[in-house]
């Protein structure tokens, strides 16, 4: 059960989604992978934030990552990126706690003036990530109960669902300014490996 990242985004219709703050726990990845994983987290967050449904718990799967996201009326969006074993109920509990703390720290007026990434300082996000890294430590419900329990208002979708008609993930990756050339090459090679694995079966 791994919680890799928490990201706070802000989206206004007609604009890009801005990454206000982010925190990462990537020690399970090799040193050389961590930069690409961070870029991938930002890319996924910026891509899906405008398309999330307001006031709906959404779960988006992409490769080995599960993204839990929630967007409020004002465009403020909080995302949790974890592995498939991490309980989504706990991820959404973390998201709600972060929202309550963050929205009390920053006024609507401050957030509405945001026009670039990382324009607010919010070190508490790292503290939330550390606290929620072990989901069993923050919740008394047993792991077996967590796996069975599913919120009825949760939408589960694939990242591909967020693409506009005629778009494909490969084109978005190539156009993205969030991904370095190394990350783009890594994405392309992982796709080729998946195809060759499938053809061997």
Give the SSE layout.
Layout: E1 3-11, E2 17-24, H1 31-48, E3 57-62, E4 65-71, E5 76-82, H2 88-105, H3 108-112, H4 124-132, H5 143-148, E6 154-158, H6 169-175, H7 181-200
Parallel strand pairs: 3-6
Antiparallel strand pairs: 1-2, 1-5, 3-4, 4-5
What is the element string, with H for helices and E for strands?
Answer: EEHEEEHHHHEHH
Biggest sheet details: 6 strands, mixed
CATH architecture assignment name: 2-Layer Sandwich
How do the strands of the widest beta sheet line up side by side?
2-1-5-4-3-6
Helix content: 40-55%
Helix segment tally: 7
Mean pLDDT: 82
Q: Can you tell me the CATH class?
A: Alpha Beta
Give the overall silhouette: globular
Domain Longin: 7-132
Protein name: Synaptobrevin family protein
Keywords: Coiled coil, Lipoprotein, Membrane, Methylation, Palmitate, Prenylation
Domain V-SNARE coiled-coil homology: 140-200
Would you write up a description of this structure?
- With 201 residues, this protein is α+β, with helices and mostly antiparallel strands.
- The chain has a single domain, classed as Longin domain (Beta-Lactamase, 2-Layer Sandwich), CATH 3.30.450.
- The chain has helices at 31-48, 88-105, 108-112, 124-132, 143-148, 169-175, 181-200; strands spanning 3-11, 17-24, 57-62, 65-71, 76-82, 154-158.
- Strands 2-1-5-4-3-6 form a six-stranded mixed beta sheet, with helices on both faces.
- β3 and β4 form a beta hairpin.
- α2 (88-105) packs antiparallel against α4 (124-132).
- The protein starts with a strand and ends with a helix.
């Amino acid at each position: 059960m791994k919680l890799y990242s928490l990201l706070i985004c802000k989206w206004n219709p007609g604009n890009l989604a801005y990454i206000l703050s982010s925190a990462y726990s990537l020690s399970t990845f090799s040193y050389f992978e961590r930069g690409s994983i961070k870029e991938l987290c930002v890319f996924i967050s910026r891509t899906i934030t405008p398309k999330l449904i307001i006031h709906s718990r959404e779960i988006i799967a992409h490769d080995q990552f599960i993204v839990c996201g929630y967007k409020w009326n004002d465009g403020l969006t909080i995302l949790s990126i974890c592995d498939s074993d991490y309980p989504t109920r706990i991820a959404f509990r973390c998201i709600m706690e972060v929202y309550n703390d963050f929205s009390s720290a920053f006024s609507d007026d401050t957030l509405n003036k945001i026009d670039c990434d990382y324009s607010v300082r919010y070190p508490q996000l790292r503290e939330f990530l550390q606290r929620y890294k072990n989901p069993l430590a923050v919740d008394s419900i047993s792991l077996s109960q967590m796996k069975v329990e599913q919120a009825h208002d949760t939408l589960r979708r694939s990242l591909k669902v967020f693409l506009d008609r005629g778009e494909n993930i490969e084109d978005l990756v190539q156009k993205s300014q969030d991904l370095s050339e190394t990350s783009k090459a890594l994405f392309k090679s992982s796709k080729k490996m998946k195809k060759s694995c499938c053809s061997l079966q």
